[in-house]
Amino acid sequence: MSASGGTKAIIAALVANLSIAVAKFVAAFFTGSSSMLAEGIHSVADSGNQLLLLIGGKRAQRGRTKEHPFGYGRERYFYAFVVAVVLFTIGAVFSIYEGFHKLSSDEGLESPVWAFAVLIFAIIAEAFSFRTAIKESNAVRGSQSWVAFVRRAKSPELPVILLEDLGALLGLIFALFGVTMAVVTGNPVWDAIGTLMIGVLLAVIAIILAIETKSLLLGEGAAPEMERQILAALEGSEEVERVIHMRTLHLGPEELLVAAKIAVAHNDSAAEVARGIDEAEQRVREAVPIARVIYLEPDLDRTPTTTSG
């Protein structure tokens, strides 16, 4: 994922959520709708999440230090994980609490036209934000399905924004359902049901985000296709007979560590081995530009040979 594409999607979502949050709180004040209040808190949580993603992207750009010799690229994973925690604790827990509280209340909705007007405005704004996230994601996901893109993306920002925007749109639909049923039936319980549906939705999205960002935090290797490119580049070097074994690790979305033990010829001199390693590193960087940290250990090929006859 390009950093500019992720930033563009984050800013679009931030602008949409800030404007929507204000409108939702105004509607909640005039209508007394718990669904609208829950959606207002949802938008505030989303806005905070976008700020966290921007902070993570900025901090990840810091250079290497003695304490962090591989840099700070994985800060983007940390802040994406914090987003999942915030979405669950603030968005989901509050909405579920407010929904159960509203179930025991007999207060009906007042001035429902406020709720309908704000929900329509919010759906349009969220659709614009979601469209931006889809457009930026399509530029990098290739032929992957959307599920595969969310699960395999090494850059966390676009998957996070995609799921947040999807959750926001579904949440608005749930709120519209709750408010509409409460107005049609005159029963405020429907508003509470809509609030509970929003809370459960946010909890599910938060859990999905937590699982995926946890995997990135723990450390993921290169995608299979990228590993095949690295192997081909190494074994295509004249001084490398074969790759004995190899490990890869993402130090950040755009920085990959490659460590490999390579077999060299028995009669190669130290100078020839050193030259071969330099050439192999150059080939890897040309094939996979994000392979910025490469460690190659030369060894002799001790694979047993078989003789016929």
UniProtKB/TrEMBL annotation:
Membrane topology: Multi-pass membrane protein
Transmembrane parts of this sequence: 9-30, 77-97, 113-134, 161-183, 189-211
GO biological process: zinc ion transport
Location of the protein in the cell: Membrane
Keyword Endoplasmic reticulum included in the entry's annotation: no
Gene Ontology cellular component annotations, sorted alphabetically: membrane
Superkingdom of origin: Bacteria
Keyword Transport: yes
Record's keyword terms, sorted: Membrane, Transmembrane, Transmembrane helix, Transport
All residue ranges annotated as the Cation efflux protein transmembrane domain in the record: 10-218
GO molecular function: monoatomic cation transmembrane transporter activity
NCBIfam families per the UniProt record, alphabetical: CDF (TIGR01297)
Protein name, entry field: Cation diffusion facilitator family transporter
